[in-house]
Amino acid sequence: MALSPNPNIFANNPIDRAGHLRGNPEWLAEKRKDPSSLFVPLWNLNPLVLPEEVPSQGKDVGWVPAAAVEPLAGPGAIEVFLGINRRGKALFAIDISAARNPEAEGPLKGFGAFEEIRGLAMKGEITASELAILAQAKAMIDWHLRHGFCSACGAKTELAEAGYKRTCPSCHAEHFPRTDPVVIMMATHGDKAFLGRQKIFPKGMYSALAGFMEPGESIEEAVARELDEEAKIAVKSVRYHSTQPWPFPSSLMIGCIAEAESEDFEIDGVELSGGKWFTRDELAAALRGEGQGFFVPPPFAIAHHLVKAFVEGW
Ligand SMILES: [Zn+2]
Asked: How far apart are the CA of 149 and the centre of ligand 1, in A?
């Protein structure tokens, strides 16, 4: 049975991650050589994207065979097995940051452009399924590039398990890809919900509050602590809504809606520069693009879906 769809961009990854094959070097070597296997090259963490064939019909990810990327990758390039797609093809991500200018020279010259995936998500130029695969690829390559040395002894580590582990040849420590949980939440009280503003937000934008979870903390406790720290809002209960993989570099946004004890609040002036309780009708208007003097984040942000859930009576 398939999972019911998650409303968030970067979720709903359609591939079979095939974890049981990561430790099978013969199978992986065979698939690497198989011309039907597909590689997405990432240059400075940006994937190759092909230009639109038909104007405003969207762009495609630049999936290419190994032969097209190997000359650019250089020795020891990071390569990760992503999984198997619905057509049974093995998918890989490969770091080609060693290349000087792969858009203008070498085997990928003229293929397309290396584009930042947050921008692709904002513009909606790539299908949601492909964005989810790119999120996996970007988070994995990014992790390897930042974890080249053992945190226990300082020696250089080596890629293992098709990219899902790094091992230390000196002290034999094993290191696994990180996911850093972040709680993102909206406090509600009756017919109102609280949204805040940060100084860096575009003028007029209000959004859900957010913060990193701390070790030894439950999701509910992190939600209550963040609302208290940033806005002095006291909560009675916390409900989980949905999660969003957020590969910048390795977060998982955990969306929650919390029931506040009252509408009392006090902005901390550090994390938040403003905040306000909005009625359900005001938020419904904002979702339609008719907010009176304010707006909420667009659908590529989980905050949008928290607001939408509240408006719909979730
Ligand atoms: Zn070590």
From this structure: 8
